[in-house]
């Protein structure tokens, strides 16, 4: 199946809360969102909470717009400003929030510890975010 690039929207139909994102491969991105949500490890704690409360049947995934790779960020910003989705963590026009960056650094540190137990010698925590 051909990869579809563009803007997507995840909606919890029980609460009408939504998330807008972009990807060069929307099908793969949706798979990754579902995998993290099912495992209880999604980086978006609000979305994870709704998934845990209402389950997978309360979520729908829609393609909002197909677009070229070089247009994706601008188009995502447009839809976020237009629809003001309550599940988006970062203000996409200004980049990630301090809270988001802190959370991602914490996740890197936890992953780094797990990888070291498995024999990995690198250090993910020092990588730039």
CATH level 1 class label of the largest domain: Alpha Beta
Q: Span from first to last CA? A: 32 Å
Oligomer: single chain
Number of helices: 4
**β-sheet strand percentage:** 15-25%
Q: Ranges with pLDDT <50 over ≥5 residues?
A: 125-129
Portion in helices: 40-55%
Explain this structure to me?
- By secondary structure, the chain is α+β, with helices and mostly antiparallel strands.
- The protein folds into two domains: 6-95, GIY-YIG endonuclease; 96-129.
- Helices cover 43% and strands 17% of the residues.
- A three-stranded antiparallel beta sheet has the order 2-1-3.
- A hairpin with a 4-residue loop joins strand 1 and strand 2 (17-23).
Key phrases:
129 residues, alpha+beta, GIY-YIG endonuclease, 43% helix, globular, disordered C terminus
Chain-wise SSE layout:
Layout: E1 6-12, E2 17-23, H1 26-39, H2 45-54, E3 59-66, H3 72-83, H4 98-117
Antiparallel strand pairs: 1-2, 1-3
Summarize the structure.
The chain contains 4 helices and 3 strands; from the N terminus they run ββααβαα. With 129 residues, the protein is α+β, with helices and mostly antiparallel strands.
């Amino acid at each position: 199946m051909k990869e579809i690039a563009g803007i997507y929207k995840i909606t919890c139909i029980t609460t009408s809360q939504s998330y807008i994102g972009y990807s060069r491969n929307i099908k793969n991105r949706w798979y990754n969102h579902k995998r993290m949500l099912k495992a209880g490890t999604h980086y978006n704690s609000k979305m994870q909470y709704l998934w845990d409360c209402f389950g997978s049947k309360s979520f729908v995934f829609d393609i909002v717009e197909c677009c070229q790779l070089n247009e994706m960020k601008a188009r995502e910003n447009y839809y976020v400003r237009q629809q003001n989705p309550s599940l988006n963590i970062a203000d996409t026009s200004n980049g990630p929030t301090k809270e988001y960056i802190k959370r991602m650094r914490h996740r890197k540190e936890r992953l780094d510890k797990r990888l070291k137990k498995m024999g990995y010698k690198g250090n993910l925590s020092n990588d730039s975010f």
